[in-house]
Structure formats: C-alpha cells, structure tokens
Write a structure and sequence with these properties.
Layout: E1 2-5, H1 11-22, E2 29-36, E3 45-50, H2 52-68, E4 72-78, E5 80-83, E6 87-95, H3 98-115, E7 118-124, E8 127-130
Parallel strand pairs: 1-4
Antiparallel strand pairs: 2-6, 3-5, 3-7, 4-6, 7-8
C-alpha cells in the first residue's frame, strides 16, 4: 500500500490503520519508520514534489520483493509543504519473523532515499528553495540528475 497525502502525515492514525489492517494476518513483526522534518539551516519546513508513475513502479518492485519473503510493505508520503517537527514519510514492514522485517525496513528506507522520485525543497522566509546539496541524483536520470 502506497499513499500520498497533501499535507503532513497524521502518524498515530496511519500507524493505527495499518496495524488494524494487518492485525489478523499472522505477522509476528510490525516495524515502522517515521521521518520527521527537523530544524536545520534555518528552515521553516520542507516541501515535496513527487513523480507518481515512477514512484508507483519503484514501490511495486519493493512489494514484490517483500512478498517473496512473506512480508508486506506500506508507505505514506507527503506532497507539498510539511512544517518543522511534522512527519513527511512513514514506512512499515509486516513480517512473520522480526529479522526479515528489521532487514527489509533498513534496505527499503535506504533505497527510498537513493531512488524514489521525490524532490525536496527548503521552506525559508516564505520561499521554496530546491535542496540541491541534500539531494541524491536518481540512477538513470541523465541530465536531470547532474549537480551544478
């Protein structure tokens, strides 16, 4: 399950919803990861653009990988502005065994940071500024991935 929200994520409700969806699936482990906008470089928050067709393909490949391990992956991400101390990203793995879930959530979050087609902007003094120095070029993005 991949969900895109137009604002900051309501972490308690999303995690509760996911837990309830999988409560009778016989999973022994539920490992969530919550990404929160932290104060750095004088920002007021972050803003996100998402290219959903590529994100959907990327996420599907992870769902397929998880399924081979008997696990399930869920993800939620914000589109648009998210202010300091709010959440923009939640991922979770449900698995029969904790070792699979712990390993998979780590791999998933790292690959998300490197490959997901989500562009981050700093919000400073009412302006939206591309966060070039903290961005990672997406493999195969060609000229769009070149840092200046």
């Amino acid at each position: 399950m991949l969900s895109i929200y137009g604002s900051a994520l309501d972490v308690p409700n999303i995690l509760k919803e996911w837990y309830e969806e999988e409560a009778h699936s016989n999973y022994g482990a539920f490992i969530p990861f919550v990404g929160t906008v932290r104060s750095e470089d004088g920002i007021d928050g972050l803003s996100f653009d998402i290219y959903e067709p590529i994100l959907n393909r990327w996420f599907k490949s992870w769902q397929d990988k998880a399924e081979l391990l008997g696990a399930t992956i869920k993800m939620a991400h914000s589109k648009g502005d998210v202010m300091l101390h709010e959440s923009s990203y939640i991922a979770a793995v449900f698995s029969p065994k904790r070792k699979v879930a712990l390993s998979l959530i780590n791999e998933f979050v790292e690959d998300f940071k490197a490959c997901a087609p989500i562009w981050k902007y700093d919000l400073k003094e009412g302006k939206r500024i591309y966060a070039l120095e903290r961005s990672t070029a997406i493999k195969g993005s060609g000229i769009l991935g070149v840092k200046k």
